[in-house]
Amino acid sequence: MFANYLIGLREGLEASLVVGILVAYLVKSGRRDRLPPIWAGVLSAVALSLAFGAVLTFSSSRMSFEAQEAFGGTLSIVAMGFVTWMIFWMRRTARTLKSELHGRLDAALAMGTMALVLTAFIAVGREGLETALFIWTAVQATGQSTDPVIGAGLGLVSAVLLGYLFYRGAVKINLAKFFTWTGAALVVVAAGVFSYGVHDLQEAGVLPGLNSIAFDVSDAVPPSSWYGTLLKGTVNFSPASSWFEAIAWLAYILPVMTIFFLPGRPKSPTPAAPAEC
To answer: Which of 85, 158, 199, 202 has the smallest set of CB atoms within 10 Å of its CB?
Structure first.
């Protein structure tokens, strides 16, 4: 549940910050009349995310076991890609998000109502679709239909509350550090999702080596124990992993975590203007 809470909090906070920045900018610039298109875009994005989750659930329920495993494994790998992209995008833009959104909103205001709707829709929809996909893969991985949804729901509620407090100016934290450390935690979660996706593809017969076991610690970490369930729910840890699963986990987490904590490139100095004669 914690991993899904973290996903809901992280994705929801991004969306809440974006909406808060857009709303605050319109209010402070005396354009309250342009708020309805923003909320229309937000609600449309939420509806699309819910519909996407429903389509995933309905589509997979009508497949054979092999097709379900192949479908789930493929989407797990896609979810891993989305989360990785999101982690690095927010790490790069956390400091400049406000000015970037102000620029987009100025352009949207000049273009008209539909541009405002589209701006809010894209800003919230990206996080919503990623969240729906990640929750769906968590449900498939844990075999539980309620805990991942409850965890993500609590994370989203927390994110909305924090977003409102940010908007009201009641909370001030270092967003760059916040997204750095939650991003590092999500790298571990994404590695587990990638490994689980590989396992699904092995069960579907797409990849070989299902019975070639790298390690089996089921006696020390029984899958039905509370700590086995906790490890499965947070980082998708499997007590009995194939070589392909173990290699996939290491092949993801070692380079991604290393790159994530590399210092950013220093800004190149602005060239001096040539002196006038």
So the answer is: 85
